[in-house]
Amino acid sequence: MMKIIYVGESWLGSCARSLKEALARNSQVDLDEVNEDHFFPKHRAKWLRGIHRLLRQSYRQELYREILARVAVFQPDYVIVYKGYSLDANFVGQLRSLGVQTVNIYPDCSPHAHGERHRKAVGAYDLVISTKSFHPALWQSSYGYANTCAFVPQGYDPNLHLVASPPVEQLFDVLLIANWRIEYGDLMKRLAVLLERHQIKVGIGGPGWLQHRSEFPADWVFVGAMVGRSYVEWLRQGKICIAPVTREVVINGARQHGDEDTTRTYELAAAHCFFIHRRTDFVKTLYCEEKEVPMFDSPEELAAKILYYLPRSEERSYMAGRANMRAVAFYSTDSRAAEVVTVLSERLAG
């Protein structure tokens, strides 16, 4: 039995929580948890922002004390930290000095994108298990790290995203849920121009979009952030969902490898959605483009495929069903947790 203390966020829909629960279901794991977000209050009023910023170091020290207390009692084989934005390199080193193996599950495209403290912390772990297929090969040459990096992809949460039946009523022709990014905004603005004469009903959800509402057609619907079960239900309101990825990654003036997939890559299929995905080499290994998930390289190709598939409901349903079957079989967080356990077991044995 492998003993793990797991540090990560606990809100419904967070990747950290989904993987934690999958690890807890694994018969080879005895898991204790420290919920990172419980130590950092979320503010809604603007006046609280400054107060929390002043207190952030105190919050961090409370988190550190709790982790150390759990380590002292539980005596884990591993402390697994999901992303670990709140942990610095000194604290990771302190854990290692106690004889605990430290592991970071890293979900983001680049560990350089969140400041110097975080960049250094990622390099302090004994092992990084990245959800990005390109990280292991570039870990030393592009990112400058000397620690070991393994790859285990993201997945869908069977307790949240999995829906066995196809949607019945769909209010939108085209739907997107994603955090606002300039690249995504440019994609959707170009799509608006390409589709303007076709009377297509578009819905967009996710943080950041409402601030850019005026840049898009007046009849497009914007709903803000969507999490948990509401996220899944709203995804299923789209006849066609769009799955973009961030291909343009420039940090401190240096271009880095663009993203290859996101959690949407797996969640949309599990939720029985028909979706058109940004074409990447990695995604082409996950789905059949002709029979499961169509793909696009440009706004023009995306618009053409939307116009092709929108009137073909039977073809959409068939492809969504095929993608769902593939995701259910191979891409759950339980499957990913089993891969993580294999990586950790091999490390303990070695």
What's the short story on this structure?
With 350 residues, the protein is α/β, with parallel strands linked by helices. The protein has helices spanning 15-25, 46-74, 89-97, 116-122, 135-138, 182-195, 228-235, 264-270, 283-286, 299-309, 313-330, 333-349, and strands spanning 2-8, 29-35, 78-82, 101-106, 127-130, 148-151, 172-177, 202-205, 221-222, 238-243, 249-251, 254-256, 275-278, 295-296. The strands form three sheets. Strands 2-1-3-4-5-6 form a six-stranded parallel sheet, sandwiched between helices. Strands 9-8-7-10-13-14 form a six-stranded parallel sheet, with helices on both faces.
Structure, explained:
By secondary structure, this protein is α/β, with parallel strands linked by helices. The protein has two domains: 2-155 and 332-349, 3-Layer(aba) Sandwich (Rossmann fold); 172-330, Rossmann fold (3-Layer(aba) Sandwich), CATH 3.40.50.2000. 40% of the residues lie in helices and 18% in strands. It has twelve helices and 14 strands. Strands 2-1-3-4-5-6 form a six-stranded parallel β-sheet, sandwiched between helices. Strands 9-8-7-10-13-14 form a six-stranded parallel β-sheet, with helices on both faces. Strands 11-12 form a two-stranded antiparallel ribbon. Strand 3 (78-82), helix 3 and strand 4 form a beta-alpha-beta unit. The longest helix is centred in the first third of the chain and has 29 residues, at 46-74. The chain is globular and about 65 Å long. The two termini are 16 Å apart.
